[in-house]
Structure formats: structure tokens, C-alpha cells
């Protein structure tokens, strides 16, 4: 498949890019600084996310949004995702897959209490989590885009080894057999590329936890 990764030089973007390349997909890294991509097998589009156009994304089967807003600019999570949805509106061939947040997952069976609203949720993470939640809620209303929103577990670990094993869920925070809600970036990338290949969550949110 022909896959574009926005933010391919970031921690999650790098892992998703490596997983896609390992499986033989064609990958284009969309980054603001081309020099950050050193793999010569990867095409590079040096462009700011907010400058991307419908024509830029039209050639791809899937566009992975691994954008990460800088501190103080957390609202960019909302505006960036809205921009991507707008330029992909009506495009039935290109999927938009979002590296999302865990804050909007629910912790109860009735789906009334989200992670971000639990008493122990750190205040320092609330600006990011709340803006990611609002971005997701806006995306949920879009029937003109083939979107998929992928929330990680509560603990999203950059350097955890790849196991290739995970359990999927939808809107509830998952806990594994060890009583932990955790997944490494590498296993998250595995699940993301599995979703790109299999298309099981069109216009849906899903989540994954390490087994």
C-alpha cells in the first residue's frame, strides 16, 4: 500500500514508519524538516501539516496523523485534525488514521466516566488530553471522511520491546492480565499497520493493550 505518515520523525511516527516498511509498504514521510528522515527508502514531503492540500494527500491509500502539538499549542490538536478532515472530505480512496489519546477512553461499563475526568488524572496532561478529546469528538461527526482513531492504553511506553501481541477494544480503557493498561510504541505501530491492512474500524475509534 501507499502510506503517508505525518510526523514521521516523532516517536510514534518512526515506529509506524518502520513497521510499514518492514511489511513492504511504500512510505512517504511528511515532515517539516526533511533532514530528520535518514532512511533512503522513504520518500519525503517537506511541508507543514497546515499547508497540506487535498492534492498532496490524494495519491495515498492511507494517511497516518502522528502529529504532536508542542507545549502551549495544545489546541493545534483540534485545528490540525479539522484541517486534515477538510482536505480529505469526499475522498473515498484515502483513509485517515489518527494516533490519538487515551484520555477520552471510558473507565466504566456505562461509558459515563472518561480517563481524563478521573480524580488521579495529572493536571499537567489535561491541556493535551482535553484538546485531543475535543478533536476526536469533532472527527466523530464526519461522515465525509474515512477516518479511524486509535487510542493507546493509559501507559504509552516509547522503548518497550515489540512483541507483536495485543488485545483490541473500542471505547473502554483496557486492562491486561497483569492488571495494567499499557502498550509500547512498537506494538502500537503493529496494531496501526494491521488496521491499515485490514480496515476493521472504518469511522470508528479503537484501542489496544499489551497482553
TrEMBL record:
This is NAD(P)-dependent oxidoreductase. Gene3D superfamilies: NAD(P)-binding Rossmann-like Domain (3.40.50.720). Residues 7-196 form the NAD(P)-binding domain. GO terms for molecular function: oxidoreductase activity, acting on the CH-NH group of donors, NAD or NADP as acceptor.
